[in-house]
Amino acid sequence: MGNIVAIIGRPNVGKSTLFNRLIGERQAIVDDLSGVTRDRLYGSCVWNSKTFTVIDTGGFVPESEDVFEAAIRSQVRIAIEEATVLVFMVDVTTGVTDLDESMASMLRRSTKPVFLVVNKVDNGQRMMEANEFWSLGIENTFFLSSMTGSGTGELLDAIAEQVADEEPRDVTLPRIAILGRPNVGKSSLVNALLGEERNIVTDIAGTTRDSIDSHYNKFGKEFLLVDTAGIRKKSRVHQDLEFYSVMRAIKALEECDICILMIDAQTGIEAQDMAIFRLAQRRHKGIVILVNKWDLVSKETNTARDMEKTIKEKISPFVDVPIVFISTLEKQRIFKAVEAALEVYENRNRKLKTSELNEVMQEIIERNPPPAYRGNYIKIKYITQMSGAHPVIAFFCNHPKQIQENYRNFLENQLRKHFKFTGVPVSILFRQK
Description:
It contains twelve helices and 15 strands. By secondary structure, the protein is of the alpha/beta class.
Protein backbone atom coordinates (compact mmCIF):
# COMPACT_ATOMS: atom_id res chain seq x y z
CA MET A 1 0.00 0.00 0.00
CA GLY A 2 1.52 3.30 -1.05
CA ASN A 3 1.91 5.90 1.68
CA ILE A 4 0.02 8.95 0.48
CA VAL A 5 -0.27 12.16 2.48
CA ALA A 6 -2.93 14.51 1.08
CA ILE A 7 -2.99 18.22 1.93
CA ILE A 8 -6.56 19.52 1.79
CA GLY A 9 -8.16 22.85 2.61
CA ARG A 10 -9.69 25.97 1.11
CA PRO A 11 -7.72 27.91 -1.55
CA ASN A 12 -5.08 30.40 -0.34
CA VAL A 13 -4.54 28.87 3.08
CA GLY A 14 -0.93 28.08 2.10
CA LYS A 15 -1.14 24.46 0.91
CA SER A 16 1.48 24.90 -1.83
CA THR A 17 3.98 26.55 0.50
CA LEU A 18 3.62 23.71 3.00
CA PHE A 19 3.89 21.20 0.15
CA ASN A 20 7.17 22.80 -0.95
CA ARG A 21 8.51 22.65 2.58
CA LEU A 22 7.61 18.99 2.89
CA ILE A 23 9.15 17.86 -0.37
CA GLY A 24 12.01 20.32 -0.09
CA GLU A 25 11.86 21.85 -3.53
CA ARG A 26 9.90 24.64 -5.15
CA GLN A 27 7.89 22.25 -7.21
CA ALA A 28 4.53 23.95 -6.87
CA ILE A 29 4.11 27.38 -8.39
CA VAL A 30 3.66 29.62 -5.39
CA ASP A 31 1.87 32.84 -6.05
CA ASP A 32 -0.51 35.05 -4.13
CA LEU A 33 -3.16 34.79 -6.83
CA SER A 34 -5.93 32.30 -6.23
CA GLY A 35 -5.87 29.22 -8.41
CA VAL A 36 -2.34 29.67 -9.72
CA THR A 37 -1.37 26.26 -8.43
CA ARG A 38 -1.78 24.46 -11.67
CA ASP A 39 1.26 22.26 -11.72
CA ARG A 40 1.01 18.53 -11.10
CA LEU A 41 1.44 18.66 -7.41
CA TYR A 42 2.94 15.57 -5.97
CA GLY A 43 6.40 14.71 -4.77
CA SER A 44 8.13 12.41 -2.36
CA CYS A 45 9.30 13.24 1.14
CA VAL A 46 11.68 11.31 3.36
CA TRP A 47 11.51 11.96 7.11
CA ASN A 48 12.75 9.80 10.01
CA SER A 49 13.68 7.15 7.41
CA LYS A 50 10.05 6.87 6.24
CA THR A 51 9.20 7.70 2.64
CA PHE A 52 5.82 8.99 1.56
CA THR A 53 4.24 10.79 -1.36
CA VAL A 54 2.71 14.20 -0.67
CA ILE A 55 -0.19 15.48 -2.78
CA ASP A 56 -1.28 19.10 -2.82
CA THR A 57 -4.95 19.00 -3.77
CA GLY A 58 -4.91 22.73 -4.54
CA GLY A 59 -4.04 22.15 -8.17
CA PHE A 60 -7.28 20.30 -8.75
CA VAL A 61 -9.84 22.99 -7.92
CA PRO A 62 -12.08 24.25 -10.74
CA GLU A 63 -12.16 27.97 -11.44
CA SER A 64 -15.88 28.58 -11.55
CA GLU A 65 -17.62 29.63 -8.34
CA ASP A 66 -20.70 27.41 -8.52
CA VAL A 67 -18.94 24.04 -8.72
CA PHE A 68 -16.19 25.24 -6.46
CA GLU A 69 -17.39 24.18 -3.00
CA ALA A 70 -18.90 20.96 -4.34
CA ALA A 71 -15.59 20.13 -5.99
CA ILE A 72 -13.63 20.75 -2.81
CA ARG A 73 -16.03 18.52 -0.88
CA SER A 74 -15.74 15.74 -3.41
CA GLN A 75 -11.96 16.07 -3.27
CA VAL A 76 -12.06 15.62 0.48
CA ARG A 77 -14.15 12.49 -0.08
CA ILE A 78 -11.63 11.09 -2.57
CA ALA A 79 -8.73 11.96 -0.27
CA ILE A 80 -10.44 10.24 2.67
CA GLU A 81 -10.92 7.18 0.47
CA GLU A 82 -7.44 7.03 -1.02
CA ALA A 83 -4.86 8.68 1.22
CA THR A 84 -3.03 7.23 4.22
CA VAL A 85 -2.82 10.49 6.18
CA LEU A 86 -4.91 13.66 5.79
CA VAL A 87 -3.43 17.08 6.49
CA PHE A 88 -6.27 19.61 6.78
CA MET A 89 -5.07 23.17 6.47
CA VAL A 90 -6.79 26.33 7.72
CA ASP A 91 -5.71 29.96 7.93
CA VAL A 92 -5.54 31.85 11.24
CA THR A 93 -6.02 35.22 9.51
CA THR A 94 -9.53 34.36 8.25
CA GLY A 95 -10.68 32.40 11.30
CA VAL A 96 -13.02 29.40 11.05
CA THR A 97 -15.19 29.59 7.89
CA ASP A 98 -18.32 27.60 6.98
CA LEU A 99 -16.35 25.60 4.43
CA ASP A 100 -13.74 24.73 7.08
CA GLU A 101 -16.54 23.51 9.33
CA SER A 102 -18.16 21.33 6.71
CA MET A 103 -14.77 19.82 5.75
CA ALA A 104 -13.98 19.19 9.42
CA SER A 105 -17.25 17.33 9.94
CA MET A 106 -16.44 15.05 6.98
CA LEU A 107 -12.94 14.45 8.32
CA ARG A 108 -14.11 13.69 11.86
CA ARG A 109 -16.17 10.80 10.48
CA SER A 110 -13.11 9.32 8.76
CA THR A 111 -11.12 6.52 10.36
CA LYS A 112 -7.87 7.80 8.79
CA PRO A 113 -5.41 9.89 10.83
CA VAL A 114 -6.25 13.60 10.39
CA PHE A 115 -3.89 16.45 11.29
CA LEU A 116 -5.33 19.95 11.51
CA VAL A 117 -2.72 22.54 10.55
CA VAL A 118 -3.43 26.16 11.46
CA ASN A 119 -1.22 28.15 9.12
CA LYS A 120 0.27 31.69 9.25
CA VAL A 121 0.74 31.54 13.03
CA ASP A 122 3.89 33.66 13.16
CA ASN A 123 3.47 35.92 16.20
CA GLY A 124 2.08 35.87 19.74
CA GLN A 125 -1.18 37.61 18.81
CA ARG A 126 -1.92 35.01 16.11
CA MET A 127 -0.95 32.23 18.51
CA MET A 128 -3.82 33.40 20.76
CA GLU A 129 -6.23 33.65 17.81
CA ALA A 130 -5.29 30.15 16.65
CA ASN A 131 -6.97 28.65 19.70
CA GLU A 132 -10.41 29.14 18.17
CA PHE A 133 -9.63 26.25 15.77
CA TRP A 134 -9.88 23.74 18.61
CA SER A 135 -13.63 24.19 18.06
CA LEU A 136 -13.30 22.07 14.87
CA GLY A 137 -12.91 19.08 17.16
CA ILE A 138 -9.78 17.60 15.60
CA GLU A 139 -7.50 16.19 18.24
CA ASN A 140 -4.15 16.48 16.44
CA THR A 141 -3.85 20.23 15.86
CA PHE A 142 -0.59 21.95 14.89
CA PHE A 143 0.12 25.67 14.73
CA LEU A 144 2.69 26.57 12.11
CA SER A 145 3.92 29.05 9.58
CA SER A 146 4.57 27.40 6.23
CA MET A 147 6.33 30.57 5.03
CA THR A 148 9.02 30.47 7.74
CA GLY A 149 8.79 26.72 8.30
CA SER A 150 8.34 26.98 12.06
CA GLY A 151 6.37 24.00 13.35
CA THR A 152 6.82 21.81 10.28
CA GLY A 153 9.24 19.46 12.07
CA GLU A 154 6.65 18.48 14.68
CA LEU A 155 4.06 17.94 11.94
CA LEU A 156 6.46 15.71 9.98
CA ASP A 157 7.29 13.69 13.09
CA ALA A 158 3.57 13.05 13.62
CA ILE A 159 3.02 12.13 9.95
CA ALA A 160 6.01 9.76 9.94
CA GLU A 161 4.59 7.91 12.94
CA GLN A 162 1.42 7.15 10.97
CA VAL A 163 3.24 6.02 7.85
CA ALA A 164 4.06 2.34 7.55
CA ASP A 165 7.58 1.15 6.81
CA GLU A 166 7.97 -0.09 3.29
CA GLU A 167 7.01 -3.72 3.63
CA PRO A 168 9.20 -6.27 1.94
CA ARG A 169 6.70 -7.60 -0.61
CA ASP A 170 6.36 -11.09 -1.88
CA VAL A 171 9.12 -10.74 -4.45
CA THR A 172 8.43 -13.91 -6.38
CA LEU A 173 6.69 -12.12 -9.26
CA PRO A 174 7.53 -8.82 -10.93
CA ARG A 175 4.83 -6.19 -10.33
CA ILE A 176 4.22 -4.02 -13.38
CA ALA A 177 2.01 -0.91 -13.40
CA ILE A 178 0.70 0.65 -16.60
CA LEU A 179 0.41 4.42 -16.17
CA GLY A 180 -0.39 7.33 -18.43
CA ARG A 181 -2.92 10.06 -19.12
CA PRO A 182 -6.62 9.21 -19.53
CA ASN A 183 -7.53 7.72 -22.92
CA VAL A 184 -3.99 6.81 -23.88
CA GLY A 185 -4.96 3.13 -24.20
CA LYS A 186 -3.98 1.59 -20.86
CA SER A 187 -7.09 -0.61 -20.61
CA SER A 188 -6.76 -1.74 -24.24
CA LEU A 189 -3.21 -2.85 -23.51
CA VAL A 190 -4.32 -4.83 -20.47
CA ASN A 191 -7.10 -6.47 -22.50
CA ALA A 192 -4.72 -7.26 -25.36
CA LEU A 193 -2.30 -8.89 -22.91
CA LEU A 194 -4.83 -10.82 -20.89
CA GLY A 195 -6.93 -11.63 -23.92
CA GLU A 196 -10.22 -10.88 -22.21
CA GLU A 197 -12.33 -7.81 -21.60
CA ARG A 198 -11.01 -7.33 -18.06
CA ASN A 199 -12.02 -3.72 -17.96
CA ILE A 200 -14.87 -2.51 -20.02
CA VAL A 201 -13.17 -0.17 -22.45
CA THR A 202 -15.12 2.86 -23.54
CA ASP A 203 -14.06 6.14 -25.06
CA ILE A 204 -15.08 8.21 -22.07
CA ALA A 205 -11.95 9.52 -20.35
CA GLY A 206 -11.40 7.96 -16.98
CA THR A 207 -13.91 5.13 -16.95
CA THR A 208 -11.46 2.82 -15.25
CA ARG A 209 -11.81 2.52 -11.50
CA ASP A 210 -10.31 0.51 -8.68
CA SER A 211 -7.02 -1.27 -8.58
CA ILE A 212 -7.16 -4.94 -9.48
CA ASP A 213 -3.99 -6.97 -9.88
CA SER A 214 -4.11 -9.32 -12.84
CA HIS A 215 -1.89 -12.37 -13.05
CA TYR A 216 -0.24 -12.86 -16.45
CA ASN A 217 1.15 -16.28 -17.19
CA LYS A 218 1.66 -17.08 -20.87
CA PHE A 219 4.46 -17.91 -23.28
CA GLY A 220 6.80 -18.65 -20.39
CA LYS A 221 6.41 -15.13 -18.99
CA GLU A 222 4.82 -14.51 -15.62
CA PHE A 223 4.11 -11.27 -13.75
CA LEU A 224 1.43 -9.28 -11.93
CA LEU A 225 -0.18 -6.28 -13.59
CA VAL A 226 -0.94 -3.67 -10.97
CA ASP A 227 -3.84 -2.44 -12.99
CA THR A 228 -6.15 0.43 -12.26
CA ALA A 229 -9.19 -1.40 -13.57
CA GLY A 230 -12.94 -1.43 -13.03
CA ILE A 231 -15.63 1.15 -13.54
CA ARG A 232 -15.87 4.63 -12.13
CA LYS A 233 -18.95 5.43 -10.06
CA LYS A 234 -21.43 7.59 -11.97
CA SER A 235 -21.48 10.22 -9.25
CA ARG A 236 -17.91 11.35 -9.88
CA VAL A 237 -17.86 14.80 -11.39
CA HIS A 238 -15.60 15.40 -14.34
CA GLN A 239 -13.54 17.93 -12.37
CA ASP A 240 -12.22 15.40 -9.91
CA LEU A 241 -11.39 12.85 -12.45
CA GLU A 242 -7.91 14.19 -12.88
CA PHE A 243 -7.31 14.33 -9.13
CA TYR A 244 -8.71 10.84 -8.77
CA SER A 245 -6.58 9.38 -11.55
CA VAL A 246 -3.46 11.05 -10.14
CA MET A 247 -4.19 9.51 -6.71
CA ARG A 248 -4.62 6.14 -8.38
CA ALA A 249 -1.47 6.50 -10.45
CA ILE A 250 0.62 7.32 -7.40
CA LYS A 251 -0.80 4.33 -5.56
CA ALA A 252 -0.04 1.99 -8.45
CA LEU A 253 3.44 3.50 -8.76
CA GLU A 254 4.15 2.92 -5.07
CA GLU A 255 3.05 -0.69 -5.35
CA CYS A 256 4.97 -1.70 -8.47
CA ASP A 257 8.54 -2.63 -9.39
CA ILE A 258 8.30 -1.55 -13.02
CA CYS A 259 6.35 1.40 -14.38
CA ILE A 260 5.18 1.20 -17.98
CA LEU A 261 4.53 4.80 -18.96
CA MET A 262 2.20 4.96 -21.95
CA ILE A 263 2.20 8.08 -24.04
CA ASP A 264 0.15 9.01 -27.07
CA ALA A 265 2.13 9.13 -30.32
CA GLN A 266 -0.03 12.00 -31.55
CA THR A 267 0.59 14.34 -28.63
CA GLY A 268 4.04 13.15 -27.53
CA ILE A 269 5.30 13.37 -23.96
CA GLU A 270 3.39 15.98 -21.95
CA ALA A 271 3.80 17.63 -18.54
CA GLN A 272 1.72 15.04 -16.74
CA ASP A 273 3.73 12.20 -18.31
CA MET A 274 6.91 13.93 -17.18
CA ALA A 275 5.57 14.22 -13.63
CA ILE A 276 4.95 10.45 -13.49
CA PHE A 277 8.34 9.77 -15.08
CA ARG A 278 10.18 11.91 -12.50
CA LEU A 279 8.24 10.41 -9.61
CA ALA A 280 9.03 6.88 -10.84
CA GLN A 281 12.67 7.92 -11.14
CA ARG A 282 12.76 9.39 -7.62
CA ARG A 283 11.10 6.26 -6.21
CA HIS A 284 13.72 4.13 -8.03
CA LYS A 285 11.20 2.15 -10.07
CA GLY A 286 12.14 0.50 -13.34
CA ILE A 287 10.75 2.46 -16.31
CA VAL A 288 9.68 1.55 -19.84
CA ILE A 289 8.10 4.12 -22.17
CA LEU A 290 5.47 2.86 -24.61
CA VAL A 291 4.42 5.09 -27.48
CA ASN A 292 0.87 3.98 -28.33
CA LYS A 293 -1.28 4.75 -31.41
CA TRP A 294 1.85 4.67 -33.56
CA ASP A 295 -0.36 3.35 -36.38
CA LEU A 296 -2.12 6.75 -36.53
CA VAL A 297 1.02 8.83 -37.07
CA SER A 298 2.06 9.87 -40.56
CA LYS A 299 5.41 8.16 -41.13
CA GLU A 300 6.49 10.70 -43.77
CA THR A 301 6.72 13.56 -41.31
CA ASN A 302 7.62 11.63 -38.17
CA THR A 303 9.95 8.68 -37.93
CA ALA A 304 10.34 6.56 -34.82
CA ARG A 305 13.91 7.86 -34.57
CA ASP A 306 12.74 11.50 -34.50
CA MET A 307 10.14 10.69 -31.86
CA GLU A 308 12.65 8.81 -29.74
CA LYS A 309 15.09 11.72 -29.95
CA THR A 310 12.39 14.19 -28.81
CA ILE A 311 11.41 11.95 -25.89
CA LYS A 312 15.02 11.54 -24.79
CA GLU A 313 15.60 15.31 -24.90
CA LYS A 314 12.66 15.74 -22.51
CA ILE A 315 13.56 12.98 -20.06
CA SER A 316 17.28 13.75 -19.94
CA PRO A 317 19.61 13.28 -18.11
CA PHE A 318 18.15 9.81 -17.39
CA VAL A 319 17.86 8.63 -20.99
CA ASP A 320 18.87 5.00 -20.61
CA VAL A 321 15.23 3.92 -20.86
CA PRO A 322 13.63 1.49 -23.34
CA ILE A 323 11.16 3.18 -25.71
CA VAL A 324 8.81 0.81 -27.57
CA PHE A 325 6.39 1.89 -30.31
CA ILE A 326 3.12 -0.04 -30.17
CA SER A 327 -0.48 -0.05 -31.30
CA THR A 328 -2.90 -1.65 -28.86
CA LEU A 329 -5.62 -1.47 -31.50
CA GLU A 330 -3.61 -3.41 -34.08
CA LYS A 331 -1.97 -5.45 -31.30
CA GLN A 332 1.41 -4.45 -32.76
CA ARG A 333 4.60 -5.11 -30.74
CA ILE A 334 2.72 -5.66 -27.52
CA PHE A 335 4.82 -8.67 -26.69
CA LYS A 336 7.94 -6.59 -27.27
CA ALA A 337 6.66 -4.21 -24.57
CA VAL A 338 6.31 -7.10 -22.10
CA GLU A 339 9.81 -8.33 -22.89
CA ALA A 340 11.22 -4.83 -22.36
CA ALA A 341 9.49 -4.56 -18.96
CA LEU A 342 10.76 -7.96 -17.79
CA GLU A 343 14.26 -7.12 -18.96
CA VAL A 344 14.16 -3.90 -16.93
CA TYR A 345 12.98 -5.97 -13.94
CA GLU A 346 16.07 -8.17 -14.31
CA ASN A 347 18.30 -5.10 -14.58
CA ARG A 348 16.77 -3.66 -11.41
CA ASN A 349 17.53 -6.85 -9.49
CA ARG A 350 21.00 -7.24 -10.93
CA LYS A 351 23.68 -7.85 -8.29
CA LEU A 352 27.21 -7.14 -9.49
CA LYS A 353 30.20 -9.06 -8.16
CA THR A 354 32.47 -6.75 -6.17
CA SER A 355 35.55 -8.15 -7.92
CA GLU A 356 34.12 -7.50 -11.38
CA LEU A 357 32.89 -4.03 -10.40
CA ASN A 358 36.34 -3.03 -9.15
CA GLU A 359 38.14 -4.57 -12.09
CA VAL A 360 36.10 -2.63 -14.66
CA MET A 361 35.61 0.66 -12.81
CA GLN A 362 39.09 1.07 -11.29
CA GLU A 363 40.65 1.01 -14.73
CA ILE A 364 38.21 3.71 -15.91
CA ILE A 365 38.87 5.79 -12.77
CA GLU A 366 42.64 5.51 -13.25
CA ARG A 367 42.27 6.84 -16.79
CA ASN A 368 39.86 9.60 -15.64
CA PRO A 369 40.49 10.35 -11.97
CA PRO A 370 38.12 12.68 -10.08
CA PRO A 371 39.33 16.31 -10.25
CA ALA A 372 41.33 17.41 -7.21
CA TYR A 373 39.46 19.65 -4.80
CA ARG A 374 41.38 22.63 -3.35
CA GLY A 375 44.61 20.76 -3.84
CA ASN A 376 43.32 17.55 -2.26
CA TYR A 377 43.78 14.50 -4.45
CA ILE A 378 40.69 12.32 -4.36
CA LYS A 379 41.38 8.62 -4.39
CA ILE A 380 38.56 6.10 -4.93
CA LYS A 381 39.82 2.94 -3.26
CA TYR A 382 37.04 0.43 -3.44
CA ILE A 383 33.60 -0.03 -5.03
CA THR A 384 30.76 -2.30 -4.00
CA GLN A 385 27.05 -2.75 -4.57
CA MET A 386 24.93 -2.38 -1.43
CA SER A 387 21.92 -4.59 -0.91
CA GLY A 388 18.56 -2.98 -1.68
CA ALA A 389 15.44 -3.12 -3.82
CA HIS A 390 17.19 -1.14 -6.56
CA PRO A 391 20.88 -0.83 -7.54
CA VAL A 392 22.92 1.23 -5.06
CA ILE A 393 26.64 1.45 -5.84
CA ALA A 394 28.99 2.76 -3.14
CA PHE A 395 32.37 4.28 -3.97
CA PHE A 396 34.69 4.39 -0.94
CA CYS A 397 37.16 7.26 -1.07
CA ASN A 398 39.19 9.69 1.04
CA HIS A 399 37.12 12.89 0.45
CA PRO A 400 33.55 11.77 -0.33
CA LYS A 401 32.01 15.24 0.05
CA GLN A 402 34.41 16.76 -2.47
CA ILE A 403 33.25 14.77 -5.49
CA GLN A 404 31.47 16.98 -8.01
CA GLU A 405 28.12 16.29 -9.66
CA ASN A 406 29.56 15.99 -13.18
CA TYR A 407 32.07 13.34 -12.08
CA ARG A 408 29.25 11.45 -10.43
CA ASN A 409 27.33 11.55 -13.72
CA PHE A 410 30.43 10.33 -15.52
CA LEU A 411 30.62 7.31 -13.17
CA GLU A 412 26.94 6.56 -13.68
CA ASN A 413 27.33 6.66 -17.46
CA GLN A 414 30.31 4.30 -17.26
CA LEU A 415 28.36 1.88 -15.04
CA ARG A 416 25.53 1.93 -17.57
CA LYS A 417 27.96 1.36 -20.42
CA HIS A 418 29.62 -1.70 -18.89
CA PHE A 419 26.79 -3.28 -16.89
CA LYS A 420 23.16 -3.56 -17.93
CA PHE A 421 21.05 -1.05 -16.00
CA THR A 422 18.75 0.06 -18.84
CA GLY A 423 15.45 1.43 -17.51
CA VAL A 424 16.66 1.55 -13.92
CA PRO A 425 17.55 4.59 -11.79
CA VAL A 426 20.91 3.83 -10.13
CA SER A 427 21.92 5.44 -6.83
CA ILE A 428 25.57 6.34 -6.45
CA LEU A 429 26.96 6.98 -2.97
CA PHE A 430 30.37 8.23 -1.90
CA ARG A 431 31.53 6.95 1.47
CA GLN A 432 34.54 7.55 3.67
CA LYS A 433 36.88 4.56 3.45
